[in-house]
Amino acid sequence: MTTMKKLYNIMMVAAMGFAVASCSDMLDTVPQGQFTEEQLDDKSVDGLVASAYAGLEAHFYGNNEAFAGPTTNWIFDVRSDDAYKGGGGTSMEENIHLLEVSEITSDNVSCLNKWQNNYYALSRVHSAMKAVQKASGVNNAEQILGELKTLRAWYYFDLIRIFKRIPYFTENEDPNTKTNDEYSREEIFSFIKKDLEEAAAVLPAQKASTGRITKTTAQAILAKVCAFTSDWEGVKANAGAVIASQQYSLYNNFGDMSKIAFNNGSESIFALQTSTASDNAHINWSNLLNCTYSDGNLYGQGDDFFYGSQNLVNAFRTDTRTGLPLLDGTFNDVNVTENYDGSIDPRLDFTVGRIGYPWRGHTYTQGWCRAYDVYGEYSNKKAWEAPENALAGVPWGCSSLNFIFIRYADILLLQAEALIETAAGTNAATDADLVEARKLINQVRERAANSIDGSYSPQDLDPSKADYYVGLYPEDHDGNLMWTKDYARRAVRMERRLELALEGNRWFDLVRWGEDYLVSTMNKYMTEEAKLRQYYDGRSVSANEIYLPVPLAEIDNSNGLYKQY
């Protein structure tokens, strides 16, 4: 691993890097280095802005960002009840294994990489901001600053939801003087919200070019920030604005998110733009390690990290009578295996591989599992194009398929959650917000139900092999009021798990649902999974392990500026 630089040096690095390539003019812009004020013009500023966007790629350690602080945040799904680390065994990339079993230390290299990648990205944002502010005659300067404020908010949001205390500074402040206790977490969240509010006020409603940040992008990010801070009125205002814009809609089939043809489609709100141009410099390297192993006879072998947990797979079980999730906690009483004959949500087989089931038009076998005895069979199936679409000379999985940070289903479910949390009544019979929340959740579930069609068999689904059944939440159940506030809360939380599985959201959802909820959920999970995965035996999660510590290397190199909490 490359020797890590001190943060105060990182922050002074010139905004050099790679542009996020796509079909748009802006994102094809070659990034630039530092300029004198006399050299600043539209072209040079565009280069610096492209460099700021490129921070989303995390290309700071070459093409190994899947280990070095991945943009996909898959290592945090591994911290949750949704995923196992995968790979060749527990000793392979042990730093990620230690996060999985909640053995949290300040010298974990994955923590350090995530910290440094975000601060590298912030250095680029701040260099671009200063250039825009200094340059005369830059077209749409206010809008460009809005894009940069949105990017800054995103990078800081990623940091503050991972680490307990971080240094915060703006483009005109000297990072060499900043401590990580100058501002509280609450104050940093307020700065993030302010950036996004200011950005939304000046950004255009429509994209100037593919991949550019718009007003609704800022509002969608702000909705997620508000949800993380339990600011439910803020969620309703911003998620509601995204929905009201009518710019987005759910794809007809759940599996369309994993098809290049749907890049920047109607469901994509904020995405990492990828491309096969420029000698594959901008393919989705963040997914490199997560490509399934295969049996050695088909399109090469991936590293096979990032497996769905048995608990996650079991969560897709549905009631054979209603097609609804098992919200009473009994979903994990039975393991969904190859021979499971109960009803399941079809999103399961869009999410993970199951032995004997279709995988992008091929049959998934045990030979595709690199360490079957350790991690089982449920390779991550999301975000992969078909193997025959793999690029020559790189592992399967490295394609021009965008990685979506925020999609429309996420926003619909956040809005539903906010309506539930702020509902004045206790059931749908007396509260219109609970009624509206049910409609939003059912909108997502209806898409899941409609994803069972002939075009996905045998490409992704084979209805002859599984009893796919997704029902909608009714107004009542067995003559009794069903849609109470408590039941609705459990429903939306389960829906987020099923819909957004293995997309980097689960751990952060658990965090924002509260310390007690996370600790009890994770400890129950580890106890139950230990029956299948020996490495969970005796493991547990405590409240002081929820947020990662400040990386030890950063404390050592801060000249006393940083403290551990």
Query: Domains counted in the coordinates: how many?
Result: 2
| CATH third-tier fold name of the largest domain | Serine Threonine Protein Phosphatase 5, Tetratricopeptide repeat
* Strand adjacency order, main sheet: 1-3
Instruction: Spell out the helices and strands N to C.
Output: HHHEHHHHHHEHEHEHEEHEHHEEEHHHH
CATH architecture of the largest domain: Alpha Horseshoe
The CATH top-level class label of the largest domain = Mainly Alpha
On the 0 to 100 scale, the average pLDDT is 87
Low-pLDDT residue intervals, each spanning 5 or more residues: 1-33
Alpha-carbon distance between the two ends: 27 Å
Number of strands: 10
Structural class: mainly alpha
Count of DSSP H/I helices: 19
Task: Specify the oligomeric state.
Answer: single chain
Question: How much beta, percentage-wise?
Answer: 5-15%
Radius of gyration: 23 Å
The percentage helix is 25-40%
> What is the makeup of the main sheet?
2 strands, antiparallel
- Label the overall shape: globular
List keywords for this structure.
two-stranded antiparallel ribbon, Serine Threonine Protein Phosphatase 5, Tetratricopeptide repeat, 2 domains, disordered N terminus, mainly alpha, single chain, 565 residues, 38% helix
Describe the protein.
The chain has 565 residues and is mainly alpha-helical. The protein contains 19 helices and ten strands. It has two domains: 7-233 and 544-556, Serine Threonine Protein Phosphatase 5, Tetratricopeptide repeat (Alpha Horseshoe); 285-507, Serine Threonine Protein Phosphatase 5, Tetratricopeptide repeat (Alpha Horseshoe), CATH 1.25.40. A two-stranded antiparallel ribbon has the order 1-3. A hairpin with a 2-residue loop joins strand 9 (476-477) and strand 10. Helix 7 runs antiparallel to helix 8 (215-228). The protein is globular.
